[in-house]
């Protein structure tokens, strides 16, 4: 099933108001956080709050991910145990850096009897993770890892590497591209990291469009005010969808069924463009289906 992942909104698991509000927000996904946005002495309360919120249902078609604490923390095992009980669509695990990490996560979910529908998302936010992105993505081909995709974490990358987070992200683009290539080579999804300056909608829109053009499937968000712009930027424009339908229809014409390349509206179109067109239509249809309750 193709699922739109234009906008995934983080919210602190310790903020009941945010968890409640999320039921009516237009984000494609929600990331209920137990890590950075939750203080150490609030971890247990946040875990209970997330479990209660998921049990109460009402999130519609939005993809629900729980971001656990990292594997090297005292909270990780209880976070995963809670997730195994409440069965979100997935867990997002911070600072995954090695194949051993992926094996440990998949092994723990299996040992806890988590439903096979509970997938694993890895935050790529350490130097090691970026350097080994391809190996991590390849390891995800093992179904026991349950790996569904990566989320790029620019704040932690900046913290560890001292690369500055600047408008335009020039210093981060090589590593972003490296991670995107790794996911595409192994059939995974990848979401862009959050943009912290909530009060700067123009900067946010610029970074969203950049992320889309670099190849991300969508962006993670930190505030509801970022959802609409993000959805609009990651939605294929009507003209692109119309063009996609036209390309597919052209290749279905009897005179074109055995041709690899054709001329359409003055431009060359090949069957690879028909493949791309099918993806555009799948996403557009999935977005339309999201809006139907
Ligand atoms: C950033 C915030 C702390 C700002 O909070 P605040 O100033 O209180 O927000 P507002 O007053 O503007 O809120 C208005 C209403 O919207 C609700 N709200 C706010 N944020 C969210 C949210 N994220 N999800 C759902 N609802 C939200 C408020 O409750 C208000 O509602 P109402 O009462 O009806 O008026 C805050 O936005 C926030 O906590 N954001 C999320 C922070 C977070 O999750 N951070 C972790 C992810 S980013 C990360 O970890 C980096 C990554 O790992 C990396 O390495 O790069
Ligand atoms: Mg982080």
Q: What small molecules accompany the polymer chains? A: ligand LIB3CWND, magnesium ion
**DSSP strand content:** 15-25%
DSSP strand count: 10
Count of helical regions: 12
Taking all residues together, what is the mean pLDDT?
97
User: Structural class given helices, strands, pairing?
Assistant: alpha/beta
Low-confidence stretches: none
How is this structure best described in words?
The chain is an alpha/beta fold and 293 residues long. It has helices at residues 16-21, 43-55, 76-86, 99-111, 127-131, 133-139, 154-161, 173-185, 201-214, 227-234, 238-252, 271-290, and strands at residues 7-12, 29-33, 63-67, 90-93, 119-124, 147-152, 189-192, 218-221, 261-264, 267-270. Strands 1-2-3-4-5-6-7-8 form an eight-stranded parallel β-barrel, surrounded by five helices. Strands 9-10 form a two-stranded antiparallel sheet. Strand 3, helix 3 (76-86) and strand 4 (90-93) form a beta-alpha-beta unit. The longest helix has 20 residues, at 271-290. It starts with 6 loop residues before the first strand and ends with a helix. The relative contact order is 0.12. The structure holds ligand LIB3CWND and magnesium ion. Ligand LIB3CWND is lined by residues 9-12, 17-18, 21-22, 33, 36-37, 123, 125, 153-156, 193-194, 222-224.
């Amino acid at each position: 099933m193709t699922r739109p992942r234009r906008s995934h909104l983080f919210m602190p698991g310790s903020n009941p108001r945010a968890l409640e509000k999320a039921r009516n927000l237009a984000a494609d996904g929600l990331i209920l956080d137990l890590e950075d946005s939750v203080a150490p002495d609030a971890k247990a309360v946040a875990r209970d709050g997330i479990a209660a919120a998921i049990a109460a249902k009402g999130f519609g078609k939005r993809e629900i991910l729980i971001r656990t604490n990292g594997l090297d923390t005292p909270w990780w095992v209880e976070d995963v145990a809670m997730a195994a009980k409440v069965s979100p669509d997935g867990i997002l695990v911070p600072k995954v850096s090695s194949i051993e990490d992926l094996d440990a996560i998949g092994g723990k979910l299996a040992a806890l009897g988590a439903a096979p529908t509970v997938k694993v998302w890895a935050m790529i936010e350490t130097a090691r993770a970026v350097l080994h992105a391809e190996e991590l993505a390849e390891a995800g081909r093992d179904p026991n890892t349950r790996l569904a995709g990566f989320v790029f974490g620019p704040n932690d990358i900046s913290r560890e590497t001292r690369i500055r987070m600047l408008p335009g992200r020039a210093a981060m683009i090589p590593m972003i591209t490296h991670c995107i290539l790794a996911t595409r080579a192994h059939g995974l999804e990848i979401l862009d990291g959050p943009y912290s300056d909530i009060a700067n909608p123009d900067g946010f829109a610029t970074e969203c469009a950049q992320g889309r053009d670099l190849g991300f499937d969508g962006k993670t968000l930190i505030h509801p005010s970022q959802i609409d712009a993000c959805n609009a930027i990651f939605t294929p424009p009507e003209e692109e969808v119309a063009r996609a339908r036209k390309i597919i229809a052209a290749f279905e014409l009897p005179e074109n069924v055995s041709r690899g390349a054709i001329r359409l509206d003055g431009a060359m179109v090949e069957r690879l463009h028909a493949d791309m067109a099918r993806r555009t239509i799948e996403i557009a249809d999935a977005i339309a289906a999201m809006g139907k309750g």
